[in-house]
Amino acid sequence: MSSVAVLTQESFNEHRSGLLPEQSGAVVAGSSGAGDEDALPTYKDAFPPLPEKAASPEGTQESANAWTSKIRPLKSSVITQVFHVPLEERKYKDINQFGEGDQAKVCVDIMHKTGAHLELSMAKDQGLSIMVSGKLDAVMKARKEIVSRLQTQASATVAIPKEHHRFVIGKNGEKLQELELKTATKIQIPRPDDPSNQIKISGTKEGLEKAKHEILLISAEQDKRAVERVNIDKVYHPFITGAYNKLVGEMMQETGARINVPPPSVNKTEIVITGEKEQVALAVAMIKKIYEEKKKNATTIAVEVKKSQHKYVIGPKGNTLQEILERTGVSVEIPPSDSSSETVILRGEPDRLGQALTEVYAKANSYTVSSVSAPSWLHRFIIGKKGQNLAKITQQMPKVHIEFTEGEDKITLEGPTKDLQMVQSQIEAIVTDLVSRMDYAEISVDPKFHRHLIGKGGVNINRIKELHKVTVRIPPDNEKSNLIRIEGDPQGVQEAKKELLELASRMENERTKDLIIEQRFHRAIIGQKGEKIKEVRDKFPEVIINFPDPAQKSDIVQLRGPRTEVEKCSKFMQKMVAEMVENSFSVSVPIFKQFHKNIIGKGGANIKKIREETNTKIDLPAENSNSEMIVITGKKANCEAARNRILAIQKELANITEVEVSIPSKLHNSLIGSKGRFVRSIMEECGGVHIHFPTEGSGIDKVTIRGPVEDVEKAKQQLLALAEEKQTKSHTAELRAKPEYHKFLIGKGGGNIRKVRDSTGARIIFPTADDQDQELITVVGTEEAVREAQKELEELIKSLDNVVEDTMSVDPKHHRYFVARRGQVLRDLADEYGGVMVSFPRTGSQSDKVTLKGAKECVEAAKKRMQEIIEDLDAQVTMECVIPQKFHRSIMGPKGSRIQQITRDHNVQIKFPDREDVQAAPPAEAPVQENGETNGEVKEPGDPAAPKKCDVIVISGRKERCEAAIEALKALVPVTIEVEVPFELHRYIIGQKGSGIRKMMDEFEVNIQVPAPELQSDIISITGLANHLDRAKEGLLERVKELQAEQEDRALRSFKLTITVDPKYHPKIIGRKGAIITNIRTEHDVNIQFPEKNDENQDQITITGYEHKATAARDAIQAIVDELEEMISEDITLDSRVHARIIGARGKGIRKIMDEFKVDLRFPQSGAADPNIVTVMGRPELVDEAIDHLLNLEEEYMADVVESAKMAHIRPSGSSAAAMDESRGSSKGFVVREAPWTTGSEKAPDMSSSEDFPSFGAPVATKASPWGPKRWGKGVVTAGDMLKHAVGASFLSNAPPLLLSSCS
């Protein structure tokens, strides 16, 4: 990618200050006249070429050598070291376990931790050799781990002076870590507050010696070193350090000692010298020599320099002081910044002081401080957007510092005198210019209206800023200020001020109303993606609706706008909320879990139908949930209707009844029990009936019981008995038993617990799966009954805790049955009989001995049950049931549900045959015979009457049970019947996309087959279970009756009527967005057809429906026509310049006038003979009112038009602007001599050429103007154009004069 910069004369003059004087002169001369071409710079001067390789071989060689000399030879980052652990120091000495055991585990762990690779080998002396490979850091870490974990540890102490300890530790402990890694030891140094000087080392013997040696070496080094402190007066320190610390550096290099001179900012006289004793002594002697010499020869002079000029004498980072010291050898002492003294002291050789003083004054006077008067409100205009204006000045004069102080009407300048004067004159010019063309105004507006003035996303304030070319500063909320500041062009400021004050006064006349709407309805009112609230805002455009933030949990919705509109909007929203409240009624219906699928229906057909017909929301519990509650939400009446329909389905499917029992409400809580445990136990005991108590505190005594008739009666008796018992005397006791005993205590089908209850009269409640305490058993009843039941249960639990072991004989052929399916039968036995453990002999052994272990009663009961199972297995037979394979799928039912039910009911095993692969079976051919035999064997011919293998279902179990199962299977074989239905009704029975017939098949659980249309047959076949067929046939015939009735009704509804209406009235009859015609259609239940564009009879309207309703619709249309004929039409003259204002944005203004005065307005199209004629149509009295209103609007808008015309004269004309562009464009730009394209051999590169400037696959763009796409003339927007935009261009382009109606 390439870019070309064009340097024009103006920009070149701006940058020429950066050239040398002679260059500058050359450029200026070249630009003033074309004759002096020699003054122009050459191409090579302006764009010097890069050096070529051949030009400077020596330089290339040198640079190459310099480059290559820096490259170090590459070394491998992986190193290998071998460590030896002698036998006597080995931690793990078991030779037999080499390569395994703890030693191997340690090595693996070290490899994981450090990333190094370890290899172990055994030496002849039984010592251990370890080869470690890896990066240096990893190898050192691995070595430390090997020593500490594979080698026995020894310890030793070494004493060195306490002050040397810190040198052993090193900076941030780095030296100590290095020592530990190097010697593979652990070194413990006493804490600073510990007086001990003993350092403890632990590790291998070899490591200990190394560590001791290193520590003693460090200490010995420190013994050789010395520290000397010399007190020298602070004023002589600069002579010791020298300018830029050169002298002290030279002394350190010469002596080898370290000399620490405190910096000027630190008020210390002590100079510290450290190093070896001889070095320190030599350095001290040199320092003292300088000090004595300067003390003897140096004199001082004091001068007064303004405090503000001290910083110029000091210079950046004290460089100026160092510069003076270097040049003159004189030290300049400046008083501290917090001191008020202005005295500067110069100290040095007498003959040098004069020169130093001259330099001090020169530096002090090199900078000046000045100020420019500028109103504080103009400061930001002087600075410019993001400091752009100021940056231009500071880039030219970087040494001048410009400071703006908030609230002060001045700008402070500081810098070199010459530069400062130039900057001052530039800023004064900017201030003068701004003061002449800028103004400001301040208005007072209540802070509560500020955010409304700003508008959503700043839309209002941004519009005012752009329209009037001003800046408006509205104070932030936290300032609580009512002052708004407007700055900019004087006229723009006044206009913006006027508009803002008008807006504020309008807001003061507005009304704010708070609506209390529950937060749960807010989301529903707003709608998805704000669709619903948009409709409300469109309906009431002048009202601002504010919802609270969801996080605030507030119910207050704020409305703001004109009083009447706010009231209308408030009523509308309250009506919306009332409807939502009405639709949020909720009712819960308990339905037995097994009937949920029937309520849902196939593919959700039933539930969908109920939802649609009752207009409710129905939620069913999840499939894996234990809940039976179906929740219905909607209007109260609709919820009740849906509830009754759902209960009707349940009642139809099962013998379900509902009874009400009167129990005093004060007893309800005690009957429900803690967390509903008591009532739940009654429901479970009575076959899962539903018992519904009224809400607490309602005072209602009626309790509802729903379920199968027998179970409901049983639950009713129990509830009444319990209620009577509670009224007389009730007592509760609690006892505990292991959860695995509960099933045994309850017994099969609740038999055991029923015996206890019958004998004692007490109720026993066991915990449910949801209860936290799974051991707690509650006994409820009279005191005596509870005591007896508790005693019986405690005895049972005690006996269960008495664990015994027993054996029984089971034939090995039956073992597989018990242990199959991962011991499912044994798990069921353990669950049912108190966790009894049953152990079978190992597979393969011929033993028949089976061991049972558990509580005595549990073991006995389990033995008895196992005996029953064995008897069943011995008595088991296998029977075959022949049913054609095509019926197998329907017999199995969805997901095999029907077959599972039969196996549960009859306790049998059912095995279906494999499906016969019809395609794979080869055609029957004669078998190949060899020597008169088939495959060497003589085969008897098969029995043709024998059933196919794929049709035989095998049933295993007791004989009587197998026979019952066969009967149940045969009852599931589908039967087919035929029903006669007239052929012309078939398509209505099938329904749209088969929905009708699918619904019937789902409802009656049958398959209905309609003959193909080409057969023209009246016979429909129904296939299904025998007990479903009669219902399906009745349903089908009922549907036929309905369709025949519908046919008759359709004939009555097809009555047609035509009415003649002038086409010019058609739009009025249709109404806006078809509102009027839709209302007539709905009210009279008819279809109304208007003529198409190409119809001959354009005045004919056709009405179709019942005869009496079609007549009523015709009368309604005629009434509208009569009213339209009474209307008059008047033309008025309105200046075409105000048409656009009257029409308004998107036709809003004109629609408002038409709605308010109930008239139609017709504006002329662009190009009309008289563009000022506007037609008003409507009732006479309304037309007069509308005309008066329009003329008033014209008068008001014309004043604005006249004012705009005046403003247009003030603005500069387009021709002068073009002239300015032309004069600016005539600059020749930057010119050079001897350019490659001027020699003739080369030509200037074409930037649009893909050859000169190849791109990476992108096509070459066509040349474009640097100022963007051309604009083809100025656009003039007419009223007609605005109307096209408002109501659709296509409609306007076809219509002659435009008619805008209040309803079209």
Automatic annotation (TrEMBL):
Which molecular function terms from Gene Ontology are attached?
Answer: mRNA binding
- The Low complexity compositionally biased stretches are 919-930
Q: Name one GO biological process term.
A: lipid transport
Which top-rank group of organisms is this from?
Answer: Eukaryota
Keywords for this protein: Acetylation, Cholesterol metabolism, Coiled coil, Cytoplasm, HDL, Lipid metabolism, Lipid transport, Nucleus, Phosphoprotein, Repeat, RNA-binding, Steroid metabolism, Sterol metabolism, Transport
| Composition skew (Basic and acidic residues), residue ranges | 936-946
Q: Where is this region: Disordered?
A: 1-42, 913-946, 1237-1264
| Chief location bin | cytoplasm
Q: Which PROSITE patterns match?
A: KH_TYPE_1
**Residues in domain K Homology?**
152-220, 224-292, 297-365, 366-432, 437-505, 509-578, 583-651, 655-724, 729-798, 802-871, 875-974, 975-1041, 1053-1122, 1126-1195
What InterPro entries does the record point to?
KH_dom (IPR004087), KH_dom_type_1 (IPR004088), KH_dom_type_1_sf (IPR036612), KH_Vigilin_N (IPR057778)
Coiled-coil features, chain-numbered ranges: 779-806
Q: Which Pfam families match?
A: KH_1, KH_Vigilin
The UniProt regions of compositional bias labelled Polar residues, in chain numbering, are 1-11
Query: What's any one GO cellular component for it?
Result: nucleus
Tell me where in or outside the cell this protein is found.
Cytoplasm; Nucleus
PANTHER family cross-referenced by the UniProt entry: SCP160 (PTHR10627), VIGILIN (PTHR10627:SF34)
User: What role does it play?
Assistant: Appears to play a role in cell sterol metabolism. It may function to protect cells from over-accumulation of cholesterol.
Q: What is this protein called?
A: Vigilin
Give the organism, scientific name. Myripristis murdjan (pinecone soldierfish)
Q: Which gene underlies this protein? A: HDLBP
